[in-house]
């Protein structure tokens, strides 16, 4: 709620420091800020019925002297001749009304009233309606205004016996089913209690005599009726949060006090129909003293504590070992001991609580989580040292682009997205990275290499959502070394990214046998890309992003992409291989084959021979011409037991060459 | 024996040429001319393929010998050039280095690691979070009633009636309480999602949550943990303001402010004229939440705290716009 500082000041006997008030309210849980001569007071969501001036003043009444502006001595000159019969008094615990005659409803609402309504977003209507709205803002009690002349002799709260159609004050027609509980007079329904009045007893600028109702309608009546008429109003929303009964009668008195400030009116006494069972209106909560001190962990002298107990505005009695609190019904936020503890400490001040250390037994660390973090940290350190910047993107992405990536109809849609560009869960990290690239290129940050580690989502055959943590990186061609004489191809960037992949899988994941196989992809160029396979499962993809796909982002650059699942596994035991003291002998061999023979085929043939003492096969260079290619390989031989001779190594080399000749028909 | 190839002459020619070279590029040219694919040596090899075995063998030996001598000569010459280069060539040592710049992890990742390592050193156990959650773990078990405004479609992202994108890391409290043995001392962090977007809010952000459940946990213990953490994070003894607040899953609930880093408490626009900046929320775990996880709330008590990671990072580095964290502008990210 908002209130003009000058208006607030009128309620305090002494001059107040508005900053002090702000701090105090904030301390008590009502976050308050000062802006443009107004105080903005936020009410916590468990105290919604405190969103009115009287409740706020109540919170401060033990710290400041609050002026009581309610003058109960109002002159009563007219008679209440409208009888009130509450037939459903489980739904209405109290009904008060007052009547006013000779009111001039044509006059302009006074400025101070208008201002207060405006800053609290209430529209102005006419004098009397504005004033009643003003009173409601101040007290938290909804009031209902009727044209007294239109109410025929009696007001009854009861169920209607058959279906009826009514027109509300907003001229809307509503069908009411039989048994709906309404307020009606001798002839017509005058209102849906606590929600909205009907058209026939509407008050306008010409109205001279009015009846104002202030009642306690129960929450369940309001909810029931809201459902039936499919409508909720300012008034009904207030009723759903329980009302402080003390204000129900006082609001009417204060209303008269205010109106009389601006014009001469004649008013009646306040008619009361009250059905409150006092015992229902309170509940008791016991708080054991030892429990309290153990809970907060500080010993506070009881004398000191007593001072603050008195400040909490709740009646209590002190016993030897406990306190007994009498909680009024409208304090719906107080249900258990801890709520009382909260009220007490709030006033005492959390800042006064002395912090205390405590002993906690040490626990075994969670090994599984630990290992996963080690792997992720290694990946981050590795990539950052290679100049890749880590980025973080939203988990939700654009559906139109995602449709191309997954090619599936099972996109995981967000029912209520914030925008069309963020309306499905990402199944792949590529969308975010390309957008980051574009963002940076547009700002002339051209040297862009980025990676992200995050979750992606897919649905499996059973329509269950699967969550997979992945790493992806993106890199533009211009950042990679341009020339390399060891590879015959013009564009060797694929192999540079492949080296990164090899380092991750072989050195960080410690998995030796991953494979690449060519595949069709809707977003990677089929000549320059592959799926990454480990243990017969696809764990990722690598390659040049398809130019057609990049058109969606209006990007023309050559972009390389790598994506791989974060493997969740135990850290493998490393098996150390003995390092020989004897010298290595290296032999270069050159193999000329048909172009379609893959490098790995050659290597596999060599490996399959299982030549003893062959400790390494190293790729040196490749040269392609026409339909043949020449691959240079260095073989390294070494023995654990002795120095190998040239004769032996030559023999082994020839063995290998002969074997290759045979297998490759070369 | 007819010596078709005068290996001696070839060697002499080579030696005279190489002695004349005084730069690397000439030396390279000689190397290619003699030892290259189409070089002198290789051409001879190609030609002697077709002659008879005896002569071929003899030529072979001589050729190998020649090749070896030429190769050694060239290698030595290269080495000489290198030594010369290092002794005589003056280089401008102030020129920048070559190859990659060391990039960095995202500032949020860095902040998380720092805070996590602190809590691990205080004996907290880390558990990984789930981004997709169901209504029970995200709301119901945390005592958030069905009509609470945060459950509405205006504030939470839903995938369907049961599954949603989690709105806070507090869901992990429930997971931990249901699966693990007491006592518990746990932290968890990760992405959370709320349907909100302005200068200080994005639809996705990061939170870190910590909680302890044990037999004798008190409010004073909670304050101890918070104070010590904040002193660690801001690297000095920090002045805090702890005040009443409301969360459905803690009672009492508090919010903690630190003295405004901009005006040091003297009031300014950053702290909205209050002198304080809100930094985290905390409280004693509501007994109903413990009960929902079948924990005897008479025997056990809990404390919990939650930190908005973007927020605490923005405060530390005086960053004004939260969107900077997700735009991923290299100029911004590389500063950390």
Molecular structure report:
The complex is a heterodimer of chains A (666) and B (336). Helix content of chain A is 30%, strand content 27%. With 666 residues, chain A is of the alpha+beta class. In chain A, the strands form 8 sheets. Chain A has a 7-stranded mixed beta sheet with strand order 19-22-23-27-26-25-24. In chain A, strands 4-7-10-11-12 form a 5-stranded mixed beta sheet, with no helix packed on it. In chain A, strands 5, 6, 13, 14 and 15 form a 5-stranded antiparallel beta sheet that branches. In chain A, helix 10 (302-311) packs across helix 11 and helix 17 packs across helix 18 (646-664). Chain A starts with a strand and ends with a helix. Chain B is α+β, with helices and mostly antiparallel strands. Chain B is 41% helix and 19% strand. In chain B, the strands form 2 sheets. A 7-stranded mixed beta sheet of chain B has the order 1-4-5-9-8-7-6, sandwiched between helices. In chain B, helix 2 (24-35) packs antiparallel against helix 4 and helix 3 packs antiparallel against helix 4. The N and C termini of chain B lie far apart (78 Å). The chains are: A alpha+beta (666), B alpha+beta (336).
Number of strand elements of chain B: 9
Query: In what order do the strands lie side by side in the largest sheet of chain A?
Result: 19-22-23-27-26-25-24
* Distance between the first and last residues' Cα of chain B: 78 Å
Helix percent band of chain B: 40-55%
Rg of chain A, nearest Å: 41 Å
Tally the helices of chain B: 12
Structural class of chain B: alpha+beta
How is the quaternary structure best described?
Answer: heterodimer
Strand content of chain A: 25-35%
Per DSSP, what share of the residues of chain B sits in E-state strands of 2 or more residues?
15-25%
Biggest sheet overview of chain B = 7 strands, mixed
Q: Ranges of chain B with pLDDT <50 over ≥5 residues?
A: none
Q: What letter string, H or E per element, gives the SSE order of chain B? A: HHHHHEEHEHEEHEEEHEHHH
Structural class of chain A: alpha+beta
């Amino acid at each position: 709620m908002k209130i003009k500082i000058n208006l607030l000041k009128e309620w305090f006997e002494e001059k107040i420091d508005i900053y002090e008030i702000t701090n105090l309210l904030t301390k008590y849980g009502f976050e308050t800020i000062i802006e443009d001569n107004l105080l903005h007071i936020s009410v916590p969501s468990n105290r919604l019925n405190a969103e009115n001036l009287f409740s706020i003043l109540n919170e401060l009444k033990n710290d400041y002297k609050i002026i009581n502006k309610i003058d109960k001595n109002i002159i009563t000159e007219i008679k209440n001749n409208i009888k009130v019969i509450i037939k459903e008094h489980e739904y209405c615990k109290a009904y008060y009304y007052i009547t006013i005659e000779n009111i001039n409803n044509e006059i302009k609402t006074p400025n101070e009233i208008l201002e207060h309504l405006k800053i609290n977003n209430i529209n102005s209507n006419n004098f009397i309606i504005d004033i009643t709205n003003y009173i409601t803002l101040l007290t938290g009690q909804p009031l209902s205004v009727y044209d007294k002349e239109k109410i025929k002799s009696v007001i009854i709260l009861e169920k209607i016996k058959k279906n009826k159609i009514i027109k509300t004050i907003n001229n809307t027609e509503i069908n009411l089913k039989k048994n709906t509980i309404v307020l009606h007079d001798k002839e017509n329904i005058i209102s849906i209690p606590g929600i909205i009045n009907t058209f026939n007893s509407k008050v306008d600028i010409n109205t001279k005599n009015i009846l104002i109702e202030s009642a306690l309608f129960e929450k369940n009546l309001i909810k029931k009726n809201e459902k039936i008429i499919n409508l909720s109003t300012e008034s009904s929303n207030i009723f759903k949060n329980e009302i402080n009964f003390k204000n129900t009668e006082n609001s009417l008195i204060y209303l008269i006090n205010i109106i009389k400030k601006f014009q001469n009116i004649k008013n009646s006494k306040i008619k009361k129909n009250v059905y409150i069972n006092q015992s229902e209106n309170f509940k008791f909560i016991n708080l054991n003293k030892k429990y309290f001190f153990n809970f907060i962990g500080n010993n506070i002298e009881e004398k000191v504590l007593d001072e603050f107990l008195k400040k909490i505005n709740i009646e209590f009695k002190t016993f030897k070992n406990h306190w007994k609190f009498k909680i009024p019904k409208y304090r719906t936020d107080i249900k258990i001991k801890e709520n009382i503890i909260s009220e007490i400490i709030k006033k005492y001040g959390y800042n006064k609580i002395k912090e205390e250390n405590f002993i906690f037994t040490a626990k075994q660390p969670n090994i599984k989580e630990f290992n996963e973090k080690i792997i992720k940290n290694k990946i981050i350190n590795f990539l950052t040292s290679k100049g890749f910047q880590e980025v973080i993107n939203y988990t939700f992405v654009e559906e139109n682009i995602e449709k191309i990536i997954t090619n599936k109809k099972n996109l995981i849609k967000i029912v209520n997205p914030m925008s069309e560009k963020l309306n499905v869960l990402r199944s792949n990290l590529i969308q975010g990275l390309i957008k980051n690239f574009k963002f940076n290129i547009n700002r002339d940050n051209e040297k862009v290499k980025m990676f992200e580690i995050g979750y992606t989502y897919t649905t499996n055959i059973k329509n269950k959502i699967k969550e997979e943590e992945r790493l992806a990186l993106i890199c533009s061609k211009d950042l990679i070394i341009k020339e390399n004489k060891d590879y015959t191809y013009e564009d060797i960037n694929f192999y540079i990214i492949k080296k990164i992949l090899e380092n991750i899988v072989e050195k960080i994941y410690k998995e030796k046998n991953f494979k690449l196989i060519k595949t069709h992809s809707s977003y990677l160029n089929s000549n320059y890309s592959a799926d990454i396979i480990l243990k017969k499962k696809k764990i990722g993809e690598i390659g040049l992003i398809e130019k057609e796909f990049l058109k969606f982002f209006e990007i023309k650059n050559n972009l390389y992409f790598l994506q791989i699942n974060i493997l969740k596994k135990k850290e493998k035991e490393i098996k150390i291989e003995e390092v020989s003291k004897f010298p290595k002998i290296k032999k270069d061999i050159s193999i000329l084959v048909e172009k379609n023979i893959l490098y790995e085929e050659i290597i596999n043939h060599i490996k399959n021979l299982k030549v003893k003492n062959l400790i390494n096969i190293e790729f040196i260079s490749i040269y392609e011409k026409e339909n043949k290619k020449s691959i240079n390989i260095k073989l390294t031989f070494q023995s654990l037991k002795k120095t190998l001779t040239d004769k032996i190594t030559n023999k082994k080399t020839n063995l290998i060459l002969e074997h290759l000749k045979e297998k490759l028909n070369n | 024996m007819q010596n078709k190839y005068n290996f001696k002459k070839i060697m002499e020619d080579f030696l005279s040429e190489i002695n004349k070279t005084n730069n690397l590029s000439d030396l390279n040219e000689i190397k290619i001319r003699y030892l290259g694919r189409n070089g002198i040596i290789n051409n001879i090899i190609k030609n002697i393929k077709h002659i008879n075995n005896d002569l071929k063998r003899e030529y072979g030996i001589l050729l190998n010998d020649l090749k070896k001598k030429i190769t050694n000569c060239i290698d030595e010459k290269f080495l000489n050039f290198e030594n010369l280069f290092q002794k005589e060539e003056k280089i401008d040592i102030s020129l920048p280095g070559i190859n990659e710049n060391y990039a960095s992890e995202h500032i949020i990742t860095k902040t998380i690691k720092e805070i996590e390592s602190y809590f691990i050193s205080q004996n907290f156990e880390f558990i990984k979070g789930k981004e997709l959650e169901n209504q029970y773990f995200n709301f119901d078990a945390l005592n958030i009633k069905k009509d609470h405004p945060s459950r509405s479609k205006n504030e939470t992202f839903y995938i369907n009636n049961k599954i949603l994108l989690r709105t806070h890391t507090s869901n992990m409290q429930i997971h931990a309480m249901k699966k693990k043995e007491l006592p518990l001392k746990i932290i968890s962090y990760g992405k959370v999602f709320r349907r909100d977007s302005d200068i200080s809010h994005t639809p996705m952000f990061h939170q870190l949550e910590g909680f302890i459940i044990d037999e004798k946990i008190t409010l004073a213990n909670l304050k101890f943990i918070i104070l010590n953490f904040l002193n660690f994070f801001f690297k000095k003894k920090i002045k805090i303001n702890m005040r009443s607040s409301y969360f459905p899953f803690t009672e009492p609930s508090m919010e903690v402010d630190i003295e405004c880093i901009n005006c040091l408490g003297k009031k300014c626009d950053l702290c909205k004229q209050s002198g304080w900046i809100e930094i985290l929320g905390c409280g004693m775990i509501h007994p109903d939440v413990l009960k929902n996880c079948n924990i005897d709330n008479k025997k056990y008590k809990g404390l919990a705290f939650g930190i908005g990671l973007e927020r605490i990072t923005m405060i530390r580095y005086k960053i004004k716009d939260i969107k900077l964290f997700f735009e991923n502008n290299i100029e911004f990210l590389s500063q950390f």
